[in-house]
Amino acid sequence: MSESGLRQAQDKMRAKGVNQAAIDVFSHYYGELEGGATGLISEDSIAPLEDPAKLADTEISDADGAAALDKTVMIKLNGGLGTSMGMDRAKSLLTVRDGKTFLDLVVDQVRAARQATGARLPLLFMNSFRTQDDTLAALSRYDDLAVEGLPLDFLQNSEPKLRADDLTPVEWPADPSMEWCPPGHGDIYTALLGSGTLDLLLEQGFRYASVSNSDNLGAAPDARIAGWFAQSGAPYAAELCRRTVNDRKGGHLAIRRSDGQLILRDTAQTSAEEMHYFTDEHRHPFFHTNNLWWDLEALRKALTERGAVLGLPLIRNEKTVDPSDSSSPKVIQIETAMGAAIEVFAGATAITVGRERFLPVKTTNELLLVRSDVYEVDSAGRVVLQADSAPSIELDSSHFKKINDFEKHFSNGIPSLRQATALRVDGDWSFGSDVTVRGKAHLEGSGTVDDGTTLGN
Q1: Which of 91, 190, 268, 290 is exposed most, by the fewest CB atoms within 10 A?
Q2: All domains of the chain, ordered by start, with CATH?
Q3: Residues 198 and 209: beta-carbon distance below 8 Å
């Protein structure tokens, strides 16, 4: 049955116009799925990463940094809709602060880096078919953004969701678009190759790529890291941060015992029985930021030699075809993680960076923080911490998870959090204007925090 399922899936992809490289990659993972691959990485097969290089110890001249940045392209993963926050368009179009969206701040960061260093520094977005139109429309007002001869985006591939019972492509006439899914951000390599973007970048004289999520406001262009990567001669590098108790869910790098190769292990690749190892910030003290650096020549060589199939570890993602309908057919989505490519490249490395390089906004908890006076946006579009450390935020998901509900509860303004250490809200609370939080504050029940109130301790 699964052989027929693969053929049906391939035919469906060809009919949709999916390029052959993406079909070949999907077929590879279909075979792994059929063979029962789980993608799990056992604790006894790895050793912790103990002493990676530190950016703080690196000396790079301004000239060397600028020269490396001039050969670098910024690539932002931009395929997400922000559905977990109740959005139905590109998450990067969400207003972060001061009337600017993620997209606006990313553009500000790139423009500032160009001005400071003289680097060409193209900005490329990997969009999905759901985010492409809105994103390009928003970028159209920046007439100085595109670098001559290069596009502003390339498109992530699509693949069929597979029925969990027989591995055939699922059919869902109620909404045929739900029959398709992205292959995870590990598809970026296939998409770069299949779209012709990788060859185009190399033809234009670019050698390096700095890659990150569009919702990570900390991953701004950095000439110092670009210079370090160029001087390292490594084909691939990952940025790491030191873990705290709040980072137990993030993926981490480790050393594969069988060959000494750096690899990435994520939550989906860890069995329930071994999650206590995964979440131990002392055993695995560095987390993976998903900020990556590639040598584009090394990447093309690897893709060419492997027939576009890098062979990243499979992630088997089980869902229902309609995520909002638990009674709809169960499906398997074949996915891979972009950062897992570290195991493909001999000589791949990592560098520990400051926490300012990792400022993702995945939930309204984090959105509240970046909109507050805990952060300010500097002239280079960087979001800069204004306190010794950011407070812990826990907003009741029943009332604050969706962006419309969040906006309604804070319609009178965001509280001052610069003097706070923790804010926890359990229940339905709305906030008045000029509210200040000092130390720890915990609200329970429901009500309104009056204008000018000071909460805490």
Answers
A1: 268
A2: 2-357 (3.90.550.10), 364-455 (2.160.10.10)
A3: no
Largest CA distance in the chain: 67
CA distance 140 to 138: 6
Closest to 13 in 3D by CA, of 183, 212, 204, 201? 183
pTM of the predicted model, to two decimals? 0.93
Position 50 pLDDT exceeds 70: yes
Cα gap 214→185, rounded to integer Å: 12
d(CA 248, CA 243): 7
Q: Which residue has the tokens 């990313």?
A: 106
Is the pLDDT at 24 greater than 90? The verdict is yes
**Residue 415 DSSP class:** P
pLDDT band at 83, cuts 50/70/90?
A: confident
**How large is the average pLDDT for residues 415-419?**
97
CA proximity to 296, closest of 68, 119, 1: 68
Q: How far apart are CA 383 and CA 218, in angstroms?
A: 7
The DSSP-derived string for 366-389 is HHHHHHSTTEEE-TTS-EEE-SSS
Of residues 150, 163, 160, the one with CA closest to residue 181: 160
SS3 readout for 387-403: CCCCCEEEECHHHHCCH
Two tokens, residue 281: 């910030």
What six digits make up the tokens of 370? 């970046």
What DSSP character marks residue 169? B
Question: What per-residue confidence (pLDDT) applies to 433?
Answer: 97
Confidence of residue 2 (pLDDT cuts 50, 70, 90): low
| Average pLDDT across the chain, whole number | 94
Average pLDDT over residues 96-100: 90
